[in-house]
Amino acid sequence: MKYELYYWPEIQGRGEYVRLALEEAGAAYVDVARGPRGTAAMMKMLDAQRGTPPFAPPFLKAGKLVIGQTANILLYLGARHGLAPKTEAGRLWVHQLQLTITDFVVEIHDTHHPLGPSLYYEDQKAPAKKRTAEFWEERVPKYLGYFEQLLVGSGGTFVTGRRPTYVDLSLFQIVEGLRYAFPKRMKAFEKDVPGLVGLHDRIAARPNIKAYLASERRIPFNEQGIFRRYRELDQ
User: Fold this and answer.
1) I need a labelling partner for 154 at 20 to 30 A (CA). Which of 13, 98, 118, 146 fits?
2) pLDDT tens, 46-63?
3) In terms of pTM, does the model score above 0.85?
4) Going by C-beta distance under 8 Å and a sequence separation of 6 or more, which residues neighbour residue 105?
5) Are residues 144 and 220 in the same domain?
6) Residues 61 and 100 in one domain
7) Is the same domain home to 166 and 216?
8) Residue 2 above 80 pLDDT?
9) How far apart are CA 57 and CA 70, in angstroms?
10) What is the DSSP letter of 119?
C-alpha cells in the first residue's frame, strides 16, 4: 500500500513527525501537497461533508482510511511498521509519550506566537521574549528532563529499550528543531540532557533517516514553521 500524506508543502511543521516515521519504516508514500495541484486536493478533502473528514493537516490516507492528528497517525503507523511495542500496554505507553511531545510542540510554537497565530510575530515581540525566557527557565527542563530520565531508566539506548519507536524519531526532531531555533540556548542546555543528545545522534545515523536528511524530501527549517529562529529570542 502506498500512503498519501497531506500537509502544507512549504514547512516541516507537525507533518515532519509523520514523515520521519514513514522514512524510517521505508514505507512507500507520496507527500501529496508538494505535487501538482496537491494543495487543492488536500483542501478538497478538508472540505468533505461525508465520511471522517480531518480537522486540519497533517492527515494520512491509508487505503480507505483517512487518519488525522499527528499522534493518531503515528499510533497507526507504529503498530504496522515495527515502530511501537507489540503489547497493548506498550503501544498505549508510546502513544502517551507522543501526546506529551505534542503538548511540548505547542509550547515551542508559543515562544514566538504567545498571543496567538492570528497576529504576526512582529505584533507580539515583547510577549514572545517574555514567554521564551519562561520557556527555557521552566518548560524545557521539565519536558526534556522527563525524557532524559526515561532514557536513563531504559538503559540509555532508546526511550523504551533497545529498539527505536516513533517517539525516538520525534525526540530527534525536537532536538534538531531547538538547535535551529535557539542555537545559543540549546548549546548551553545540552549538557543537562546528554542522553537525549546521544539519542539524537543515533537516530540521525540510522540509514533510512540519514538518507532522508540528505535528500530533497527533507524541507529545510524556516520561519514559517514551528521552529523559528529569531535572534532576539536566543539570548
Assistant:
1) 13
2) 998 788 889 999 999 999
3) yes
4) 14, 174, 226
5) yes
6) no
7) yes
8) yes
9) 9
10) S
pLDDT digits (tens, 9 = 90+) for 174-210: 999 999 999 999 999 999 999 999 999 999 999 999 9
Last residue of a domain, one of 80, 106, 138: 80
Measured CA distances, 215 to 5, 115, 205 (Å)? 18, 35, 14
**Dihedral angle sign, alpha carbons of residues 142, 148, 153, 158:** positive
Q: Are residue 76 and residue 170 in the same domain, yes or no?
A: no
CATH number of the domain that 41 lies in? Answer: 3.40.30.10
Task: Specify the CATH number for the domain of residue 128.
Answer: 1.20.1050.10
What residues form DSSP beta bridges with 4?
30, 61
Whole-number Å distance between alpha carbons of 175 and 235: 18
Backbone angles phi, psi at 61, to 5 degrees: -105, 120
pLDDT confidence bin for 88, thresholds 50/70/90: very high
**Co-location of 69 and 134 in the same domain:** no
In a shared domain, residues 127 and 179? yes
The Cα–Cα gap between 183 and 188 comes to: 9
d(CA 91, CA 62): 20
Residue at which a domain ends, from 80, 111, 142: 80
Give the model's pLDDT for residue 9.
Answer: 95
Q: What share of the chain is helix, strand, coil (3-state, %, to 5)?
A: 60, 5, 35
For residue 95, the enclosing domain spans 88-233
Q: Which residues neighbour 139 within 8 Å (Cβ) at sequence distance 6 or greater? A: 104, 107
In the prediction, which pLDDT does 189 show? 98
Is the Cα torsion angle 63, 65, 69, 73 positive or negative in sign? negative
65 bridge partner residues: 62
